[in-house]
Design brief:
With 304 residues, the chain is α/β, with parallel strands linked by helices. 38% of the residues lie in helices and 16% in strands. The protein is globular and about 55 Å long.
Protein backbone atom coordinates (compact mmCIF):
# COMPACT_ATOMS: atom_id res chain seq x y z
CA UNK A 1 0.00 0.00 0.00
CA UNK A 2 3.03 2.31 0.11
CA UNK A 3 2.67 2.65 -3.63
CA UNK A 4 -0.98 3.52 -3.21
CA UNK A 5 -0.03 6.30 -0.81
CA UNK A 6 2.29 7.89 -3.31
CA UNK A 7 0.56 7.50 -6.64
CA UNK A 8 -2.84 8.71 -7.65
CA UNK A 9 -4.41 5.34 -7.23
CA UNK A 10 -7.76 6.02 -5.86
CA UNK A 11 -8.59 8.63 -8.28
CA UNK A 12 -8.89 6.16 -10.89
CA UNK A 13 -12.43 5.17 -10.72
CA UNK A 14 -15.92 5.73 -10.37
CA UNK A 15 -17.37 3.89 -12.88
CA UNK A 16 -20.15 2.05 -11.39
CA UNK A 17 -20.85 4.84 -9.03
CA UNK A 18 -21.21 7.16 -11.99
CA UNK A 19 -23.62 4.78 -13.67
CA UNK A 20 -25.49 4.27 -10.43
CA UNK A 21 -25.98 7.99 -9.96
CA UNK A 22 -27.88 8.16 -13.23
CA UNK A 23 -30.33 5.46 -12.28
CA UNK A 24 -33.12 7.65 -11.02
CA UNK A 25 -36.06 5.46 -10.15
CA UNK A 26 -35.14 2.51 -12.38
CA UNK A 27 -33.22 -0.53 -11.12
CA UNK A 28 -29.55 -0.55 -12.08
CA UNK A 29 -29.76 -3.40 -14.58
CA UNK A 30 -32.79 -1.88 -16.31
CA UNK A 31 -31.12 1.50 -16.51
CA UNK A 32 -28.01 0.04 -18.12
CA UNK A 33 -30.06 -1.93 -20.63
CA UNK A 34 -31.93 1.24 -21.60
CA UNK A 35 -28.66 3.13 -22.07
CA UNK A 36 -27.32 0.37 -24.33
CA UNK A 37 -30.55 0.56 -26.33
CA UNK A 38 -30.18 4.35 -26.58
CA UNK A 39 -26.66 3.92 -27.97
CA UNK A 40 -27.90 1.42 -30.54
CA UNK A 41 -30.77 3.67 -31.58
CA UNK A 42 -28.30 6.55 -31.84
CA UNK A 43 -26.22 4.59 -34.34
CA UNK A 44 -23.47 3.25 -32.04
CA UNK A 45 -22.55 -0.36 -32.63
CA UNK A 46 -20.74 -2.88 -30.44
CA UNK A 47 -17.55 -3.83 -32.29
CA UNK A 48 -14.25 -5.61 -31.83
CA UNK A 49 -11.31 -3.24 -32.11
CA UNK A 50 -8.29 -5.49 -32.08
CA UNK A 51 -8.02 -6.91 -28.53
CA UNK A 52 -10.83 -4.76 -27.09
CA UNK A 53 -14.58 -4.43 -27.42
CA UNK A 54 -15.92 -0.94 -27.97
CA UNK A 55 -18.90 1.19 -28.91
CA UNK A 56 -18.29 2.76 -32.30
CA UNK A 57 -20.22 5.67 -33.78
CA UNK A 58 -19.08 6.93 -37.17
CA UNK A 59 -20.27 9.58 -39.62
CA UNK A 60 -17.15 9.28 -41.77
CA UNK A 61 -17.54 8.77 -45.51
CA UNK A 62 -15.23 6.94 -47.91
CA UNK A 63 -12.66 9.26 -49.39
CA UNK A 64 -13.52 12.16 -47.06
CA UNK A 65 -11.46 13.36 -44.07
CA UNK A 66 -12.26 11.49 -40.87
CA UNK A 67 -11.52 12.73 -37.36
CA UNK A 68 -10.99 9.80 -34.98
CA UNK A 69 -11.74 10.27 -31.27
CA UNK A 70 -11.04 7.61 -28.64
CA UNK A 71 -12.78 7.68 -25.24
CA UNK A 72 -11.04 5.85 -22.38
CA UNK A 73 -12.79 5.07 -19.09
CA UNK A 74 -11.38 4.90 -15.59
CA UNK A 75 -10.87 2.06 -13.12
CA UNK A 76 -14.06 0.23 -12.24
CA UNK A 77 -15.84 2.12 -15.03
CA UNK A 78 -16.74 1.06 -18.56
CA UNK A 79 -17.23 2.51 -22.03
CA UNK A 80 -20.82 3.29 -21.04
CA UNK A 81 -19.58 6.27 -19.04
CA UNK A 82 -19.24 8.14 -22.38
CA UNK A 83 -22.82 7.55 -23.56
CA UNK A 84 -23.84 11.23 -23.28
CA UNK A 85 -20.78 12.30 -25.26
CA UNK A 86 -21.61 9.84 -28.02
CA UNK A 87 -25.33 10.68 -28.13
CA UNK A 88 -25.12 14.44 -27.61
CA UNK A 89 -27.23 14.34 -24.43
CA UNK A 90 -27.34 16.42 -21.27
CA UNK A 91 -26.42 19.60 -23.08
CA UNK A 92 -23.58 17.95 -24.98
CA UNK A 93 -23.12 18.78 -28.66
CA UNK A 94 -23.61 15.92 -31.07
CA UNK A 95 -20.39 14.75 -32.75
CA UNK A 96 -19.97 16.63 -36.04
CA UNK A 97 -20.11 14.93 -39.41
CA UNK A 98 -16.87 13.27 -40.37
CA UNK A 99 -16.18 11.96 -36.86
CA UNK A 100 -15.47 8.42 -35.71
CA UNK A 101 -16.01 7.91 -31.98
CA UNK A 102 -14.63 4.80 -30.32
CA UNK A 103 -15.46 4.26 -26.63
CA UNK A 104 -13.36 1.28 -25.56
CA UNK A 105 -13.84 -1.22 -22.77
CA UNK A 106 -10.37 -1.71 -21.35
CA UNK A 107 -9.01 -5.24 -20.64
CA UNK A 108 -11.20 -7.42 -18.45
CA UNK A 109 -14.14 -4.99 -18.62
CA UNK A 110 -17.58 -5.83 -19.97
CA UNK A 111 -16.47 -8.49 -22.43
CA UNK A 112 -12.99 -7.28 -23.35
CA UNK A 113 -10.51 -10.09 -22.81
CA UNK A 114 -8.44 -10.08 -19.60
CA UNK A 115 -4.67 -9.67 -19.81
CA UNK A 116 -1.73 -11.01 -17.85
CA UNK A 117 -0.33 -7.56 -17.07
CA UNK A 118 -2.67 -4.78 -15.87
CA UNK A 119 0.15 -2.28 -15.46
CA UNK A 120 -0.64 1.20 -16.76
CA UNK A 121 1.92 1.21 -19.55
CA UNK A 122 0.95 -2.33 -20.53
CA UNK A 123 -2.68 -1.26 -20.81
CA UNK A 124 -1.58 1.66 -22.98
CA UNK A 125 -0.02 -0.86 -25.37
CA UNK A 126 -3.29 -2.79 -25.53
CA UNK A 127 -5.16 0.45 -26.22
CA UNK A 128 -2.76 1.30 -29.05
CA UNK A 129 -3.34 -2.14 -30.60
CA UNK A 130 -7.07 -1.41 -30.57
CA UNK A 131 -6.82 2.09 -32.04
CA UNK A 132 -4.43 1.09 -34.81
CA UNK A 133 -7.17 -1.11 -36.27
CA UNK A 134 -9.25 1.98 -37.13
CA UNK A 135 -7.15 5.13 -37.74
CA UNK A 136 -3.50 6.18 -37.86
CA UNK A 137 -4.06 9.39 -35.86
CA UNK A 138 -6.34 10.14 -32.89
CA UNK A 139 -7.75 12.59 -30.43
CA UNK A 140 -7.67 10.63 -27.16
CA UNK A 141 -9.75 11.59 -24.12
CA UNK A 142 -9.20 9.69 -20.88
CA UNK A 143 -10.93 10.05 -17.52
CA UNK A 144 -9.29 9.19 -14.18
CA UNK A 145 -7.26 5.99 -14.66
CA UNK A 146 -8.10 6.27 -18.36
CA UNK A 147 -6.29 9.61 -18.34
CA UNK A 148 -3.21 7.95 -16.88
CA UNK A 149 -3.31 5.28 -19.58
CA UNK A 150 -3.88 7.93 -22.26
CA UNK A 151 -0.90 9.91 -21.00
CA UNK A 152 1.36 6.92 -21.51
CA UNK A 153 -0.19 6.30 -24.92
CA UNK A 154 0.79 9.85 -25.92
CA UNK A 155 4.34 9.35 -24.62
CA UNK A 156 4.87 6.00 -26.35
CA UNK A 157 2.92 6.67 -29.57
CA UNK A 158 3.48 10.36 -30.41
CA UNK A 159 2.72 9.85 -34.09
CA UNK A 160 -0.65 8.35 -33.26
CA UNK A 161 -1.94 10.79 -30.60
CA UNK A 162 -2.50 14.20 -32.20
CA UNK A 163 -4.63 15.63 -29.36
CA UNK A 164 -4.84 14.58 -25.73
CA UNK A 165 -7.67 15.48 -23.37
CA UNK A 166 -7.01 14.60 -19.72
CA UNK A 167 -10.32 14.53 -17.85
CA UNK A 168 -9.75 14.60 -14.05
CA UNK A 169 -6.83 12.29 -14.75
CA UNK A 170 -4.86 10.08 -12.40
CA UNK A 171 -1.16 9.34 -12.73
CA UNK A 172 0.71 11.86 -10.58
CA UNK A 173 2.30 11.15 -7.21
CA UNK A 174 0.01 11.99 -4.29
CA UNK A 175 1.78 12.55 -0.96
CA UNK A 176 -1.53 13.70 0.54
CA UNK A 177 -2.77 10.09 0.43
CA UNK A 178 -6.15 11.27 -0.84
CA UNK A 179 -5.95 8.54 -3.43
CA UNK A 180 -5.45 5.84 -0.83
CA UNK A 181 -8.98 6.17 0.54
CA UNK A 182 -10.47 5.72 -2.91
CA UNK A 183 -8.13 2.80 -3.66
CA UNK A 184 -9.31 1.01 -0.54
CA UNK A 185 -12.91 1.61 -1.56
CA UNK A 186 -12.35 -0.07 -4.90
CA UNK A 187 -10.27 -2.90 -3.52
CA UNK A 188 -13.21 -4.09 -1.41
CA UNK A 189 -16.31 -2.09 -2.39
CA UNK A 190 -19.28 -2.11 -0.06
CA UNK A 191 -22.60 -0.32 -0.28
CA UNK A 192 -21.79 2.16 2.54
CA UNK A 193 -18.34 2.91 1.11
CA UNK A 194 -19.68 3.47 -2.39
CA UNK A 195 -22.35 5.83 -1.08
CA UNK A 196 -19.62 7.95 0.49
CA UNK A 197 -17.55 7.76 -2.65
CA UNK A 198 -20.51 8.84 -4.76
CA UNK A 199 -20.90 11.89 -2.55
CA UNK A 200 -17.24 12.84 -3.09
CA UNK A 201 -17.23 12.20 -6.81
CA UNK A 202 -20.23 14.33 -7.80
CA UNK A 203 -20.74 18.00 -7.10
CA UNK A 204 -24.49 17.40 -7.14
CA UNK A 205 -25.09 13.70 -6.46
CA UNK A 206 -28.41 12.48 -7.76
CA UNK A 207 -30.42 10.13 -5.54
CA UNK A 208 -29.81 6.44 -6.15
CA UNK A 209 -32.58 3.97 -5.18
CA UNK A 210 -31.53 1.83 -2.25
CA UNK A 211 -32.26 -1.34 -4.19
CA UNK A 212 -29.74 -0.34 -6.88
CA UNK A 213 -26.64 -0.11 -4.68
CA UNK A 214 -25.94 -3.84 -4.45
CA UNK A 215 -25.85 -4.07 -8.24
CA UNK A 216 -23.52 -1.06 -8.40
CA UNK A 217 -21.11 -2.84 -6.05
CA UNK A 218 -21.41 -6.11 -7.99
CA UNK A 219 -20.53 -4.33 -11.24
CA UNK A 220 -17.29 -3.01 -9.69
CA UNK A 221 -16.38 -6.44 -8.37
CA UNK A 222 -16.89 -7.93 -11.84
CA UNK A 223 -14.18 -5.67 -13.24
CA UNK A 224 -10.42 -6.15 -12.71
CA UNK A 225 -9.98 -3.45 -10.06
CA UNK A 226 -7.98 -5.66 -7.69
CA UNK A 227 -5.66 -6.78 -10.49
CA UNK A 228 -5.12 -3.18 -11.61
CA UNK A 229 -4.31 -2.03 -8.08
CA UNK A 230 -1.87 -4.90 -7.66
CA UNK A 231 -0.15 -4.00 -10.95
CA UNK A 232 0.41 -0.29 -10.22
CA UNK A 233 4.11 0.58 -10.16
CA UNK A 234 5.98 3.70 -9.17
CA UNK A 235 7.83 3.66 -12.48
CA UNK A 236 4.49 4.18 -14.22
CA UNK A 237 3.68 7.53 -12.60
CA UNK A 238 3.78 10.35 -15.12
CA UNK A 239 5.49 13.16 -13.17
CA UNK A 240 8.87 12.84 -14.87
CA UNK A 241 7.45 11.90 -18.30
CA UNK A 242 4.96 14.70 -18.91
CA UNK A 243 7.66 16.64 -20.71
CA UNK A 244 7.65 13.87 -23.35
CA UNK A 245 4.00 14.44 -24.29
CA UNK A 246 4.04 16.08 -27.72
CA UNK A 247 0.29 16.08 -28.36
CA UNK A 248 -1.81 19.24 -28.23
CA UNK A 249 -3.13 18.81 -24.67
CA UNK A 250 -6.17 20.11 -22.82
CA UNK A 251 -6.61 19.35 -19.12
CA UNK A 252 -10.33 19.34 -18.33
CA UNK A 253 -11.16 19.29 -14.61
CA UNK A 254 -14.26 19.50 -12.45
CA UNK A 255 -13.71 22.30 -9.94
CA UNK A 256 -15.63 20.34 -7.28
CA UNK A 257 -13.82 17.02 -7.78
CA UNK A 258 -13.62 15.47 -4.30
CA UNK A 259 -11.56 12.51 -5.53
CA UNK A 260 -8.74 14.38 -7.28
CA UNK A 261 -8.72 18.06 -6.33
CA UNK A 262 -8.30 20.69 -9.02
CA UNK A 263 -4.71 21.49 -8.00
CA UNK A 264 -3.71 18.29 -9.83
CA UNK A 265 -4.81 19.99 -13.06
CA UNK A 266 -2.23 22.71 -12.55
CA UNK A 267 0.47 20.08 -11.95
CA UNK A 268 -0.39 18.48 -15.28
CA UNK A 269 -0.31 21.88 -16.97
CA UNK A 270 3.15 22.65 -15.64
CA UNK A 271 4.42 19.29 -16.83
CA UNK A 272 3.00 19.21 -20.38
CA UNK A 273 4.54 21.94 -22.50
CA UNK A 274 1.95 24.18 -24.16
CA UNK A 275 -1.02 22.55 -22.42
CA UNK A 276 -4.00 24.46 -21.04
CA UNK A 277 -6.43 23.89 -18.18
CA UNK A 278 -10.18 24.24 -18.44
CA UNK A 279 -11.95 24.11 -15.08
CA UNK A 280 -15.62 23.18 -15.11
CA UNK A 281 -17.41 25.05 -12.30
CA UNK A 282 -19.72 22.98 -10.14
CA UNK A 283 -18.62 19.67 -11.63
CA UNK A 284 -17.07 16.63 -10.00
CA UNK A 285 -14.79 13.76 -10.96
CA UNK A 286 -16.84 12.52 -13.93
CA UNK A 287 -17.57 15.49 -16.21
CA UNK A 288 -18.67 13.14 -18.99
CA UNK A 289 -21.61 12.17 -16.77
CA UNK A 290 -22.26 15.28 -14.69
CA UNK A 291 -21.29 18.05 -17.13
CA UNK A 292 -21.18 16.40 -20.58
CA UNK A 293 -21.43 19.69 -22.42
CA UNK A 294 -17.91 20.55 -21.19
CA UNK A 295 -16.49 17.37 -22.71
CA UNK A 296 -18.19 17.80 -26.07
CA UNK A 297 -17.12 21.45 -26.21
CA UNK A 298 -13.47 20.52 -25.78
CA UNK A 299 -13.67 17.56 -28.17
CA UNK A 300 -15.86 19.06 -30.90
CA UNK A 301 -16.33 22.78 -30.35
CA UNK A 302 -14.32 25.91 -30.73
CA UNK A 303 -11.51 26.26 -28.22
CA UNK A 304 -11.59 29.09 -25.73
Amino acid sequence: MKLARRAGLGVLILAAAGAGAAIGLAPFQTHMALRRLALWRGGARRVAAGPLLAYELSSCRPGAPCRCVALVHGMGDSAMTWDKTMLGEGGASAPPDGTLLLAVDMPGTDGSAPVADYGIRAQARVLRAALETRCPEWTVAGNSLGGWISGWLAVDWPEGVRRLVLVDAAGLTDPSELALQAARTLAAPTVPAMKLFNARAFAHPRPVPERAWAAVVDSIRARPTRAILAALRMEDVLDARLKDVKADTTILWGSADGVLPAEFAERFRRGVRGSRVELVPGCGHLPQQECPESVSRVLFGARR
